[in-house]
């Protein structure tokens, strides 16, 4: 190769790195802003339940729908940027596809916000069939269609991204099973030949999300047809199964992507790599299957479901999240133990993410039990459990990644950083405990107007939510002001050697 070609090659790599860097920063900025906006919607709802604010029920249900869809979507985008950043160190991925996902997300978000705030759509983020078509005159078919089209557009973006990641894994490791570490999991190959931890996580999350999105697209398209051709109907129970398969898989995939931040960032602080072993690979293989078959735990109250499906839902609920959670918690403790690790905001957030995830699984297991579910399911116990693992798990991991990225720009610590961390953690705990306590006192979920005896929970919950918003607000502003400097920075963190030799 001539010297010129070599130089051109290096320039090409540098341009590629600059583009990847720019798209990543755009992702993080979008997540930061949307997250904060959706948190403000959440705070508004909680303050309305507490009777601090006067919010008309119609607006409350629009906010509930927008908050649900917006948070689930943005958690997906947050997971996607974490996954892409780290998996890119091991497999080739396409920056244009990555960018396309962000652009499609923004288009979908505009459609969804328009459906709610202009069209009044308030059928909840789960668009449960046939509710979108039965608004009692509150929203039009067009508003419901804009909402569902918005979800479809976002789904297409994620589908492209996951297929591109799977393609890269396939090219580098020879098959998706190798990406998961299947041979290492079942003892056919020595542990140390297995892929680095980001790869099984990305493989698992991408496989399940492709399946979830395809099923979601099917039921969205059928529901869209039903909106305009009411004589075209489907079984409501089948539709609910399809919707919850999609919803369950998508929201679970967010944490399986975000956890890569823990695998990659904590070891940098501990100067000690994340050790993968046979159990680690086995956990990822098992979770790939279980996360797909556990969704009937969302239908435990549907008496028309075949009982065996509900029994599977209950039993697998006990097992589904556990393998990966246990290997992650154990791995995190091993990395941290006696490492002399320096605690700061990014390392603290990554560690907190594991704890929040673990804590959120406990009330979920209770709710996944059929006899408990029939009492608890429509109470605030449910938002209590999922806000624990999403707000203090997935979002904590993302914020860990965001603040770690911001650290590349040297800056004076002005004391706000630890304050932001503690506002977020303290407020988050108060906020989720208020939901769980209200749930155990049988306060229903999804009610715009609360009775007097429930107000104490709502007021404590609102206070917690306000602290969270302040903490996250500080972190977000500190990140956004550094974006210009980060964009100019030489590629340190991202300029890792690209694809390593195939592991096979
Ligand atoms: C400051 C942070 C947050 C606040 C104040 C907040 C507040 C709320 C409130 C008040 C509800 C309705 C509860 C009820 O049913 O009575 C809710 C529901 C929900 N939230 Fe949050 N939330 C926050 C963060 C998050 C995060 C980070 C996520 C996900 C990543 C999330 C996802 C959801 C979902 C999926 C629902 C269910 C919507 C429905 O029932 O249709 N929230 N939130
Ligand atoms: Cu689920």
Description:
- With 504 residues, this protein is mainly α.
- It has one domain (18-488): Cytochrome C Oxidase, Chain A.
- The chain has helices at residues 3-49, 57-87, 95-117, 141-173, 176-180, 182-185, 198-228, 236-258, 260-270, 278-293, 307-319, 322-336, 345-367, 370-376, 381-406, 416-440, 455-480, 483-488.
- α2 packs across α15 (381-406) and α9 (260-270) runs parallel beside α12 (322-336).
- The longest helix is centred in the first third of the chain and has 47 residues, at 3-49.
- The two termini are 28 Å apart.
- The relative contact order is 0.11.
- Bound molecules: protoporphyrin IX containing FE and copper (II) ion (CU).
- Copper (II) ion binds next to loops.
- The site of protoporphyrin IX containing FE has 24 residues, from α1, α2, α15 and α17.
